Amino acid sequence: MEKMLPIQFLSEGDYGSMMHHDIYQCVLSFLIACFLSIVAIPVIINLSNLLNLTAKPGFRSSHETETPTLGGIAIFASTLIGYFLWPHSSNPVDANLISLSVTGMIILFFLGLKDDILAVDPTKKLIIQIFASMILVAMGNFKVDNFYGIFNIHHVPDYVSIPLTVFIFIAIINAINLIDGIDGLAGGISLIAGLGFGIWFIMNDHFSFGCLAFAMSGSLLGFLRFNFSKTSKIFMGDTGSLIVGFLLSMFAVEFLNLNVGYLHDPNAYFNAPIIVLVLLIVPIFDTLRVFIVRIAKGGSPFVADRNHMHHLLIDNGFNHFWAAFTLWMVTIMNTGLFFAFHGNITNTASMYIYIAMFVAYMVMAHFMKKRAVIIQEKKKLLKHPSLSRS
């Protein structure tokens, strides 16, 4: 199949090629993974409640009841089953990379499972995440070695590309973990990004990656049905967020590697890095902002607080669904606006725009935080009228 951009694919009306069996298989992987996730989660909820494996409400929690936290087990199992339903030998390079990634997923699965049940030291978690990432980077020669002209930088040597790629993995894994603070947010954002990467992989004949992205997205859709439930609620926990973050990291790096061909191929994206940043704008902006605020206050960037954007939305009166939906739409609208108006803007110019957007995001979050404090003070006065007279 000739390389195509999704926008070109739709605009040219080449719907006949959609009948390719790979498309059907990816859609079936999505549906089967979704079905398996829906079937498995009630069993996991019952076992979690029976064994008392639940999250207790705390000062950062936006929930008032104990909730099972092992939804990541269903995401892990249904993603792999959905992917391995079909043979993946047409592109041995892709199949080999995904085999290595499955090894990394299994390592992170057990790390997340232990952390959800017993808690793991943050330093140990970081070391294991680096090890899982290095399996792909070292054994699969899987690295970002081109900056696409950002700040006039193109090809970079291994001593830059290897640590950079590991940093991308660690950053995205933990960014997904950090936004997993309210119902539907991490799952919904990852679903949107997974479908975005998956569609591009399929349209450009990388079936193995497309199938895995669709299987992950299907498992997340099934998970969201329970994550929003009032009677059968479950969280993905670290088991889920580490796996999903790892897969999104892999999709992002592979997307960057495949689109380096823009130098010679007019059908490839010359602004692939900006597309990755836009698709993951919510976790990237939120993580950067929280770390900057914590450091500015003289604290550790790794000490938890209630300063994430989803916390600010909740504290400003949003419920979980509308807070998550708002941030889903931020992702969708920014992606749509990018494709509508990016034109021939250079990657350096796009990066400056992205930085300006982050500054605006910081300012907006600052005022939202101040408003949330005022709202909380009013609530205290309403609960304790005597405070206003003291």
Topology overview:
Elements: H1 6-11, H2 21-50, E1 54-55, E2 67-68, H3 71-83, H4 92-117, H5 122-139, H6 158-178, H7 185-203, H8 207-227, H9 237-258, H10 272-279, H11 281-296, H12 309-315, H13 320-341, H14 347-383, H15 385-389
Antiparallel strand pairs: 1-2
Helix pairs in contact: 2-3, 2-8, 3-4, 3-8, 3-9, 4-5, 4-9, 5-6, 6-9, 6-11, 7-8, 7-9, 7-13, 10-14, 12-14
Describe this structure in words.
This protein is mainly alpha-helical and 390 residues long. The chain is 69% helix and 1% strand.
Mean pLDDT: 89
Number of helices: 15
**How does the major sheet shape up?**
2 strands, antiparallel
Summing up helix and strand content along with how strands pair, one would put the structural category as mainly alpha
Radius of gyration: 21 Å
User: What sort of overall outline do the alpha carbons produce when their principal axes are compared?
Assistant: globular
Strand content: under 5%
Q: Stretches where pLDDT falls below 50 for ≥5 residues?
A: 1-7, 13-19
Strand order of the largest sheet: 1-2
Through-space gap between termini: 75 Å
Order of helices and strands: HHEEHHHHHHHHHHHHH
Counting DSSP E segments of at least 2 residues, the number of strands comes to 2
The portion of residues assigned to helices is: 55-70%
